[in-house]
Fold this protein.
Amino acid sequence: MSPDAGAGATFECQLDGSAWQPCSSPQSYANLVMGPHTFAVRVRDAVGNVDPSPATRTWTIDADPPETTITAAPSGTISMASASISFAADENEVTYECSLDGAAYTACTSPYNALMLAQGAHTFSVRATDVAGNTDPSPATASWTVDTVAPTLVITSGPDDNSTSGPRVVFTFTASEGSVECSAGGVAFTPCASPFGFNSAAGAQTFAVRSTDAAGNAASATRSWTIVCTPPGATGALGLLHLDDSDQVLANAAGGASATLGTTDQPETVDPTFTTGRFNGGLAFTAAEGDLVAWPLAAGGAGSLSIELWAAPSALAGTRDILVSGDGRVAIRVTTSGGNVAFSASVVEEGGATHAVTSALVAASTWHHVLASLGEPTLRLWVDGARADVGDVTLGTAPALDSLRLGGSYGGDLDEVWLSGTAITDDETARGRFCPVSGVVY
């Protein structure tokens, strides 16, 4: 409107610097592009004079909503009952609205701090609105779970605190959740499951188990007790040589016939010598002298049997006899390889077929627990609690146990020779008889 233009005045309009065009009020424009725009209007009087200072308006068209982004937020399972979430948008001068766990959107700023969160799953949403009033139609979201409660972990069986036990220990436990790790004897924790068993040397012992859930919450339980190791007992034995004697005759602790150093009850060149054994006394065998012990066990045939002994063999070339039955059908031997040794147990069927089972290599010149078991059709061998076996054994007639020979080509120490007419067939029973010289064996 221009009151000074007089009669016959007209208007001209201009959009975004285009040519001036006649126009009237109101002037409308359609399909304008996104971005800034400038409108100008001037009056022209009846004689052609134009307003030298047109009226102007400037504005910006923005129909695009902002894009909201969460830049930092918790994820997965966390062990905190609070959370801090940071966010941003791809436009300046925006405002934000936030929603926690589906609540109504309310004005907020970054970072958004959520406190005193309940246990369980949580979700967070944020949306930005620009100065044109466009609101992000797809809010940014984050999800996580709050877990501040440690697992429930309980040892359900195993030695009690301040108690005593044998060398084989089995613990059972329950954990309500999480990954479980165990440690025996103070060694590093390793993944484990219940039941968890191990063999330990004599003395004070500890066991610890811990469970850690996905949020890092941990629970633990421990036991402390004492391991006691004893030599084999006579219960269930056909024969037992403790080798603690210091004379020519070696008593059979299970009753029955005794053994002798060498072949008679008189001193001979082939007699082994007395030494410190695994438990109390033991015998040292010199292979070059053919040292041996003769044991007229007089036990008759045995279709099932178990033979146990402790041996610390020297690393001598070839295969060496540790124990051989009088008929040669049952034997325990040792072979050297690369400075280490492997034990073997063998049985010969009535028709002459030989079955043998061999252990993994172990260190020479240190004590090892050897337990061989024959119960058709399986011949088993445990060395320091580790089992190997062979099947398809068909004896025919039972091997004769009327006599046994210890040594003859063996070099090293020997102790605690135990013989039973019953086959030990399960690992737990076999390992229950093994007491490590030191440390823990899993």
User: Anything to note?
Assistant: The chain has four domains: 10-61, 68-146, 153-227, 239-431. The longest helix spans residues 427-431. The radius of gyration is 45 Å.
